[in-house]
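user: can you give me the structure for this one chain? tokens are fine.
assistant: on it. calling the predictor now.
[tool input]
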Amino acid sequence: MEALEINATWTDKDWDKFSEWLKGMLHVGPATVTFTKKDGTQRVMKCTLEASSLPKVELKEDAKPRKESTTSMRVFDLEKNEWRSFTIKSVTKVEFKIE
């Protein structure tokens, strides 16, 4: 298991790079993301954006595309089997397996 510790001195540009990196990693496979919730508690979530692990969604003809946030990330929680999101700057640690 590989882990990435987040640096408290990151700039907004560093956070943007991290966000893109994390999104790319989650498309490849699952990761365990530790973050601080808005109420101050810590949450550890095993999540992914890997297409084969996501639930099938039927699109409605008149459905509008969801606006993508620049401050939070929407992921699929593999333990709750539901979509969840977290604020990117609240992430404290990311762990993933390299196989």
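assistant: here you go. The longest helix spans residues 12-28. Strands lie at 2-5, 31-36, 42-48, 72-77, 82-87, 91-96.
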